[in-house]
Design goal:
about 80 residues
Length: about 80
């Protein structure tokens, strides 16, 4: 028996929204790890620390890398 839209749980998001958010999170996570691995400005220790941050807190760590980590890399490269 298929559920109609009126029988759906209002507290659970639809699979369309949930699937999109999961895919977006996965892309952001992988992009952050690739960006960290390809970064040549940070020392090996800095790279390991950033990778551990992204691995331990995937969403927040990825966002922090793109907002803070890459910016510091770009500033060091220019100056």
């Amino acid at each position: 028996m298929a559920l109609s839209t009126s029988d759906a749980n209002p507290l659970m998001p639809s699979w369309g929204i949930l699937g999109f958010m999961l895919a977006l999170n996965a892309v952001l996570f992988i992009a952050a790890l690739v960006s960290i691995a390809r970064n040549r400005i940070h020392t090996t220790g800095g790279t390991i620390v950033w990778a551990l941050i992204v691995l331990s807190v995937p969403v927040l760590g990825s966002i922090l890398w793109f907002l803070v980590g890459r910016r510091r890399s770009a500033l060091r490269q220019e100056g």
